[in-house]
Fold each of these.
Amino acid sequence: MSNHDNDNNFNDYLSGNSDLSKVYRDADNSKTNAELPASDLDNSILAAAKREVNSKPKKNSSPFTNNYFIPLSTAASILIVFTMVSFFPDEQVIEFEPAIIMGELDSQQDSTPDNQKLEDKRSQKAKADNKTKQNATLAKRSKVKKEQSNKTFRKKINSKPTDIKTGKVILNESKKPLPQFDYPGGIIKPRISPLEKKAIATENITEDVVEDEDITVEMSLDSLSSSSRMADAPTQPLSTELMNDPVTTSSSIHKSKVAQSPVEELLRKDQSEPAISPLIDSDLIYDEFNWKYLPAEEWIRRIKAIYYKRGEKDVHDIITIFNDKFPKLKITIQDIIDNDN
Amino acid sequence: MHNSVAAVNLGSSMNDDLKDQTDESLMLRYSTGDAAAFEVLYSRHKGPLFRYFRRQCSEAAIAEELFQDSWMSIIKARKKYISSAKFTTYMYTVAHNKLIDYYRRNKIRFSDSVSNDDCETEDIIEALPASKQQQPEHILAAEQKRTRLLSAIELLPEKQREVFLLREESGLSLDEIARITNVNAETAKSRLRYAVNSLTKTIQAGDS
């Protein structure tokens, strides 16, 4: 067969007029049953096709979950975060640093007299020896800087708002501390003694109960001291004494009891409890700058020590200053002597 | 017998509307969940596709396995089907890939040499048992032709056979055949030419 014949055969085949296609189709038609897939195969394929279609609603049976899973989980996460933030604000974690600074300030204040002495000695030596005039000037400058830094820090602390009832300095006004947590680092106690706190609390109570505002703590203290002196009896709690007095009304008992208890407790506490730190000679010299920040109980402790060491004359002026500083807690020398006895 | 009954039952259950629709629209309907559309589609193409496999595989079981695998692939990939091409092109591409995988698994050489294919065909034709001289004259009829042709097709090189079957069974154009077999149109045409010439020789040899 030549190439020409082959091309003709192929062209006839492509046009659909060749014997080859006819014979092939006849072969297909004659063997129809044999050339078809088995019925089992048909059924299995059609069943698979139906199963695939029927499984569609199962796959898409949870379109809500499929479509809203990410948005819902995101919203839930945000809700949890907001809940956590609202219930646990972070202010308490932040406030540790001022407490530490405050402690440092205390140590600086406590050591200030010593530093001053050292500086004085150094400067004296320097002047006496005439060796290092520059060192002396530097020491003076450093001293001034320290004092300035202390003053500025005290101003900062004093400028902070203070809760009068609790006696706590609120370091962060915008965020209120939680009531169920007591954070020592978060809230710094100002220089308000327990005695002052009680006095403030007493003032609040007596305002509610006492109608006559002229009755003051001072009067109660005077009555206590005078009554105890007149009876020549050992010091008793004022409350007991007033309770035995038939003239005293119940309201006056309440007033006096509440009004006298802070000082009484302070004096008793001073007797019963040992001093936190032993007093040294420098503590027994009145220094307006250093004593300015002392609590009332420390004042009384030092006044007592001065009284027993140097006598009544030196104490008199200090008691006057104390009474000016703590007008609600006015005391006399006799109060100190009586409580000591 | 079973096959004919199944075909009748299948045909009776088909919707007339579906019968008028094209392959592509039927496949799209099936992709949206219409199982009846798939039944129509299957009934249209099950014979040609099965013969495509049956005449390229030595064993019927293998042909059935490949046939089933091809339809399962079409079923599973129904959502990915895009009607940009003819469904037959898509279906025979799947079938071609299944066949290639089968050849690779069984390490069957898939010859690509046209000249070798031609030589092999010549040898096969020489080896064919039926010839006019060897058969009684009254038996030489159409059945002998058919038998020879099918035997000759079975002995064609794989690539030529595939191209011929794609042409005969599905009526695909050369471009579509080239796309399915992943060759250019000229190569597909050349393969088809060699196949047609070989098979024509076989038929003519029987007649003479």
Amino acid sequence: MDNNLAQRLGELDEEKVLDTVLLLKEKGVEPLDIVAQLQRGMEIVGKKFETQEMFLSELIHSAAIFRKAVEKLGDFAKAEETTYYGIMVIGTAHEDIHDIGKDLVVTLMACNGFKVYDLGVDVPAASFIEAIKKYKPQVLGISCLLTTIFQNMHDTIEEIGKAGLREDGMKILIGGAPVDESVRKYVKADHYCESAQSAVDLCKKLIGGA
Amino acid sequence: MSKLILACQTISDELNLAINLTGVKYPVLWVESGLHNYPEKLRKRIQEELDRISNVSTIILAFGFCGTALLGVKSKNAKLIVPRVDDCISLLLGSAEKRNCLSKEMGTYFLTKGWIEHESSLWKEYNYCLDKFGLDKTRKIINIMLSHYSRLAFINTGAYVVSEYKDKTEKFAAEFGLEHLVVEGSLKFFQKLLLGPWDDDFIVLRPGEEISFDHMMMAEVSQGFEESGRAGKLISTVQLLQDSDLKQR
């Protein structure tokens, strides 16, 4: 498979990324294969950020290019509900307004066959509960950037449990820069995700599709 | 009883001023700025420095938690004193409570001279993007980064002349539709860090003891929870752990 697309995204060459996506689409390459290449590009960017070759702003720019590229593919990911891997409800924890990572998860999940209901930022427990009852997701994602929000995350998850919404096997995933295993234990989530890509991989595994 | 300070370069102006004001003679080791977005790297750097220090009874860490960057950090042979704040913005404002009040009023991005000059702040991101991508793309990128912020607060910590920076921060705020505020900082947390008492505002670790997740969250147990119930628990946790914005990213 042509790796140029991933490389071009890794170099943040927006024009070439978009041109290449259109070219591959015209050639009849499957949208999901194109998305897979774009995801490899995002991994390249992620590694460059980790090694401080790229700034945070470039990571954000790459996600914007990724979204534009996926838009060029049309509505391939918005098929009938029965074709979805599964359903995810996601939001940023109460009193946290940071959504860059969460938005990337939303985009990647949607491209990978999940129906995603994004509740936005600063989401109170009641809104999560309402959405869980309404959409019946297999996975719930809660993200945060602030260490001060761990308690809110804990309380939200506790409220969801008290409402009896963890009894049907729905898994609660948490993510965000300061989140690790110690935070997962504290807030009593089922899993934590180190990256947006790992959230996709984990959700596929949890729902049994991969 | 020999003491040493291990400190972050980003707060050097304020710490140096507090050292002058208090007259303490402890030597200072500076850790370079720029690792705020990389908590694991920052943790490793701090630990490396701590491991090099010997023949000192107490090490004062002049850092905020910086996310979870301090988790697991320890000194083998010295007592370790750590301010119990989410990041250095709370230190610079004088308390986590003040930081929390400002952030609750509206999404607020904080800057100081140190954050402008040393740290990987939005300011640096903006100038880097401008060189690399030009104005249009830079505006789009920074707008994404600031999408839920309504205000830019420049902290007057007393360690520099505000007017030398105010024009720039006002211009930046105007460009991105943010309200601009100069907010008074305080050196009281720094002074208490240097002179004590090391009360509940600090974590005091024995030699060999690691900073744990429980230390970070301890506020809710030690302050208010038993007397005030759930509300006290939430308030004390918020006060002591404070939001750390775009982390301060």
